[in-house]
Amino acid sequence: MKAKVWKGVWALCVVAVTMASCDFVNKMKENATTTPSDTIIGANAGELDGKIDELLELAKAKKETAEFAEIYTYFNYKPGDPSTSVTIQIVTPEDKNKMAEYSWYDNKDVRNKLDKQDMVISDHDDNVIDTYDGFKDMLFTYDDVAKQVENLPVFCKEALEASGYGEDGYVRSYQIEKGDAFIMVGHKSSNMLSKTYHVAEDGEHIIVKE
């Protein structure tokens, strides 16, 4: 059975990140900045790659062998109280028939929060898919998307320029899935205003339709 749809349904038992080692948690606290970022994580070179490394370390997964379903970075524009987050969805290292989402979140009140949630996957008919063979077609490796991660600063600049929003524009989100990556630019005056651009297959630039 082929997986077609990711369902937004989480297991009833949401597991907090208690499996993180003390050293890892302490390192996150040491790396905390005095104020949250005012841009999406990844707007600057190396940021998204570094955050992915931290989440993989939390999951006790190796970058060379991890299998991803999604990489997502998000920025919530709110004057005086911005927030940022990064999530990865991966096959769990301990059981390849299961998937989990590992996330990092930061704002002025909740600094460097780490979390893990077990995932439930289903098809269009709401049949639960609980085997690796059932969802493997949705997976990709880090090597598959290394350019899409590395070139995010380029995509941010290109998307902001293409949006025509000028100083009122900001990068709201960037999402990588198998065979696709897309970036959304928001307008500071309204959450309803946004423009989305897909990344070219070679991972070098965004696609801007004339």
Automatic annotation (TrEMBL):
Key words, A-Z: Signal
Domain of life: Bacteria
Leader sequence segment: 1-20
Listed name of the protein: Lipoprotein
Source organism of the structure: Paraprevotella clara YIT 11840
Lineage: Bacteria, Pseudomonadati, Bacteroidota, Bacteroidia, Bacteroidales
